[in-house]
Amino acid sequence: MTQHAHHLEIRTLVTTAHECGEGRVCPSVHEVVGAPDRLWVVSKRPTTHEHAAFAHLLDDGEILGWMPPGLLPDACEAVARTRGTARPGVHPDRVYVISSQVIDEVELIAFANLWDPEREQLGTVRARALEGVGA
User: Fold this and answer.
1) How confident is the model at residue 10 (pLDDT cuts 50, 70, 90)?
2) DSSP string spanning the chain?
């Protein structure tokens, strides 16, 4: 699926929209034409306990989110930093992903119909970090 919004051509690589019924509130991965070095990741907001379990891994400007298993390849570098964290509040049925928080107004507006800011968050990762997504 390709969408043009605010001068950004967004292509959805993978989504869980078919599983959650309401396409706007589903984890997904997107690319923007002309920005081959980054991918945009819509992930679910973590609980307070989940965030606390991974806080030591987050650098400035980074956010923690989660996705259902199977959306990202098992060997994906973008989730490697969170693997092996077994602390209270961590759900074994979730794949945790660390991304750079999107704060650019044009990007936020362009992606506005692809995520729900109350339940989800929008971040970016290096395209290489999600190698194999959508392949």
Assistant:
1) very high
2) -EEEETTEEEEEEEE-HHHHS-GGGS-EEEEETT-TTEEEEEEEPPPHHHHHHHGGGPPTTEEEEEE-TTSS-TT-HHHHTTTT---TT--TT-EEEEEEEP--HHHHHHTGGG--TTTEEEEEEEGGGGTTTT-
